[in-house]
Amino acid sequence: MHGTIITPFQLLEGKVIFIQNGKITAIENRKNINAPGETEVIDAGGGFVVPGFIDMHVHGGGGSDIMDGKYEAVKQVAATHSRFGTTAFLPTTMTMSKDKIIGSLKSIHEAFIKGTGAAEILGVHLEGPYISSEKKGAQKEKDIRKASIEEFLEFNQASGNLIRLVTIAPEMPGAIDFIRWLYKQGIIASVGHSNATYKQVKEGIKAGLTHVTHTFNAMRGLDHREPGVVGAALSSPELIVEIIADGIHLHPVTMKILTQVKEIEKIVLITDAMRAASKPEGTYNLGGQEVTVVNGQARLKDGTLAGSVLTMNKAVCNMVDKVGVSLTEAIQMATASPARCLGVESKKGSLEPGKDADIVILDKNLKVKLTMVKGKIVYKREALKIL
After folding, report:
1. What is the rounded average pLDDT of the residues 163-192?
2. 246 carries an active-site annotation
3. Is 253 exposed, middle or buried (0-12, 13-18, 19+ CB in 10 A)?
4. Is 357 a domain residue?
5. Containing domain of residue 114, as a range?
6. What is the CATH classification number for the domain harbouring 266?
7. Whole-prediction pTM value?
């Protein structure tokens, strides 16, 4: 009650969302309310009621990291990001030893089976180890290796067949065949941590490449004679692009250009958050490397950006305040776009009858007041009134 519903394709005033058994059953006019006396009523307090955010690329938060290889760590990451409106996510691994990756994948599978008690796991994003050493970013070069279907099958088995997205450099040996194989399995292949030429990315697209990992970051940039990965990302309608909208990884003008070139439904907001998200600034560990967080920036000793401390509600806020897109468009990038990308749009990504009751209430400053996953409140600010 008493909030603006952003579906996110339209704004609805004077409406109420009815929820039963974890699903949205109806969206009706407030004056038509005729609910049983025992019905719980949540007052949005004049804020915005939006679909839960879906983060396709998150490594950690709340002091924990997916690569810790522990069920409790995955739970902590889920709980941390649900405080900022994330209701579903892809726990994301990184380039490390085979044993470390397998341990991490087993812990994700355990969390998937047991549940996190917060944001829902929709699958796994395997970032590396099949990437370019030239564009490794904060990934360890010694653990980078040639794409291997045999090794990947071991990874997927450890995850309980949960791997939904793989970041790969298409120019590396064996990568095109691997991309072709992933496509046949229904797994998203994403170009990232890549020094590929435009032509090499287009070869990847022909093989089944459909996604771009943190666009502009850790990839060959746009040159007037060699468009590179960025040129392919901007000009290829087949590619859905991720962006880290923290104002650090990308200049606001760069983000604006992206929104002017790509359709809204082809842009996905991500956090790429590491374990320091929601924690005080200081020194942390990422993939076995020391990371210092100062002024909201996570960097290795050599200055390389090492993930972010971004949250999804802040990404939405930055798209509105720094880039100038509408609130409905920014929320689409955090909800409907990733849902469609992951093939879960029939149950997530928008507020419609029949869909999961993944709902977030934001105040006027886009800070989270309440997060609900499948009808269950997993985070609530004290100021929120529940009748």
Report:
1. 98
2. no
3. exposed
4. yes
5. 53-341
6. 3.20.20.140
7. 0.97
